[in-house]
UniProtKB/TrEMBL annotation:
GO cellular component, one term: actin cytoskeleton
Superkingdom in the source lineage: Eukaryota
Region of interest: Disordered: 1-23
Biological process per Gene Ontology, one example term: cell division
Protein name, entry field: Bridging integrator 3-like protein
Organism: Elysia marginata
Keywords: Cell cycle, Cell division, Coiled coil, Cytoplasm, Cytoskeleton, Septation
InterPro entries with a match to the protein in the record: AH/BAR_dom_sf, BAR_dom, BIN3/RVS161-like
Any one GO MF annotation of this record: lipid binding
SMART domains associated with the record: BAR
Keyword Protein biosynthesis: no
Biased composition (Polar residues): 1-14
């Protein structure tokens, strides 16, 4: 084919991009913020589940102590000691009920909302992927238009150019719609995260206050039963423990 000095060379002009680098960087920043929010939310959900498991473990461990003591020979021979352990075990039954209620509230007010929040991210990621695919189609359409514009102005090329421009318009509209929606919705989702989590935090704090109040009540009643409703300070308890230790050390079996 002979060289035509009037034809347009494809290498005569740089490739035209349909989206500026600044706009793409802005979009990528928002996507990064979205990814970080998803990672944080998933970690919070996992930590919340670990908290319920830890709560159950604490309740079971303390109940196990009282149950094991009740099976010892000491409880069979020391009536007063057995009575105290029975009271302690009964208190642990109450605390186990309060712990169950605590975990139920934690699940309903914290874990379930977190789980629902996490479920939104896959849809957002699908939207991001569709937007990226739409951008690729937009760029391909622009490249096709540029290609036909660089060809000889024949009737056949004019028809192809017209069709390519129509396809470009459709691709541009599709991309603009998806891009604008994401650039509006993603920042909105990130900015409203506090409003979403605030009720869960408040409910969790109230639940902790209720549990702690019940714990103080249960252990307070148990303490009063064990010391005969005598008001004793920490110093008094420390003195009693120290006295018992001194008596133990004075036994012949503990001397060198």
């Amino acid at each position: 084919m002979s060289w035509n000095p009037f034809s347009r060379s494809s290498s005569s002009a740089p490739k035209k991009t349909v989206l500026s680098r600044a706009s793409q960087r802005e979009f990528e920043r928002e996507v990064k913020r979205l990814d970080e929010l998803e990672e944080l939310t998933r970690r919070l959900y996992k930590d919340g589940k670990r908290l319920t498991e830890a709560n159950n473990a604490v309740a079971k461990s303390e109940r196990k102590l009282s149950q094991e003591l009740l099976t010892t020979a000491l409880c069979q021979t020391e009536e007063k000691f057995k009575w105290q352990i029975d009271e302690w075990d009964a208190s642990m039954v109450k605390m186990d009920m309060h712990m169950t209620d605590r975990n139920v509230k934690l699940h309903r007010t914290v874990l379930e909302p977190l789980k629902k929040y996490v479920s939104i991210f896959p849809y957002a990621q699908v939207a991001v992927k569709k937007r990226d695919q739409s951008l690729q189609e937009f760029q391909k359409s622009q490249d096709k238009v540029s290609k036909y514009q660089e060809r000889d102005r024949t009737g056949q090329n004019a028809v192809k150019l017209d069709l390519a421009k129509k396809a470009l318009g459709t691709a541009q509209t599709d991309f603009t719609t998806q891009n604008d929606a994401l650039m509006t919705d993603v920042p909105k989702m990130i900015d409203t995260r506090t409003d979403y989590f605030q009720p869960s935090l408040e409910a969790h704090v109230k639940s902790e206050v209720q549990y702690t109040t019940e714990a103080v009540k249960v252990y307070g009643e148990l303490s009063n039963l064990m010391n005969g409703h005598k008001q004793q300070s920490r110093h008094d308890y420390a003195s009693l423990i120290q006295q018992a230790l001194t008596e133990l050390k004075a036994l012949s079996i503990t001397t060198d």
